[in-house]
Amino acid sequence: MPNQACVRAHTNIALIKYWGKRDETYFLPMNSSLSMTLDKLYTDTMVVFDEAFSQDSFYLNGEKQGEKETQKISKFIDLFREEKKTALRARVESINHVPTAAGLASSASAFAALAGAANLALGLDLDPQRLSTFARRGSGSATRSIYGGFVEWDMGTCSDDSFAVPVDDANWDIGMVIVAVNQKAKEVSSRIGMKRTVETSPFYPAWVESAKKDILDIKAAIATKDFIRLGEITEANGMKMHGTMLGAEPPFSYWEPDSIVAIKTAQALRKQGIPCYVTMDAGPNVKVLCRLSQAETIKEALLEHFTEDKLIITKPGKGIRELTAAERAV
Ligand code: ADP
Ligand code: DP6
Ligand code: CO
Hints:
Blueprint: E1 4-16, E2 21-23, E3 28-29, E4 33-50, E5 57-60, E6 63-64, H1 67-84, E7 89-97, H2 106-121, H3 128-136, E8 150-153, E9 164-168, E10 175-179, H4 190-200, H5 204-223, H6 227-246, H7 257-271, E11 276-280, E12 286-290, H8 295-302, E13 311-314, E14 321-322, H9 325-329
Parallel strand pairs: 5-7
Antiparallel strand pairs: 1-4, 1-14, 2-3, 4-7, 4-8, 5-6, 8-9, 10-12, 10-13, 11-12
Helix pairs in contact: 2-3, 5-6
The structure holds adenosine-5'-diphosphate, ligand DP6 and cobalt (II) ion.
């Protein structure tokens, strides 16, 4: 048994959102979702299992984490320990090349990387589909980060068939400009925000119904490489998700004034004939889906309102992969 492994997983941004669980223990979603994996933002996670360890430990960006965060990791690694029938404790060292808990999907790359590393370190040999069901139980969005390009998370009927399916490599002049309006950790986590929405928002059932149609429509747009349609469905779906939060009790919103500035800028560009569409997650940051070949032009327009350090251009990313010792040392 190798006993240690280091895996890189990229974050993903949902074009059709996951916003609500039908089962909180198994992280089963209310609707299927579809995302694009991002090249620029990722997490590298190293896992070591050793008989010498009396307990699990967890380091994030070089800092030892407290009990609460470590317990979250332990609970997740328990799934792999059960599968392997081992009680070995682990040391987890993770580096986020993405702001943590800021609505840029750190939980997606985090749990996909941890799942990938635990799988290899324990020699479990789980195939990617099965691995995606494990990643799901750390964070729903992590299900999709196992694969690259456009990825669907099929809501499934139970824990075994609620997994990710690669849909398309997204290698047809697709890009994203991220407007990192605010990279600070959010006040309402995705988990809490979606739970409150499911439990209290009267708009929620309508959201689930329309998301079911959106996923069919977006897959048709991807199949025909219809970028305009892809963008229109993406923007509309995200807006509907944010609408559900305004109906919650108490109501809440992740938007900030600068989020609107970014949205209006993208919409103005569209009027000038540059197809680009916005989507937002559980945070104030705006993601502009565009043609990769036009990303620089879009960035130029955004530079009128935002500083260079807030604008990130990315192409579609790949699925998880093991890092070599040389790559780890860099
Ligand atoms: P985000 O928008 O970044 O996905 P979430 O609220 O969904 O925000 O998730 C953030 C949480 O994910 C963090 O508070 C932490 O518990 C967990 N997380 C983030 N990065 C890592 C990491 N590299 N390893 C393990 N857990 C992580
Ligand atoms: C708005 O996957 O972070 O980004 O499953 O509770 O960990 P948990 O939540 P998380 O939620 C993501 C919500 C979203 C939409 C999406 O990524 O599909
Ligand atoms: Co998240």
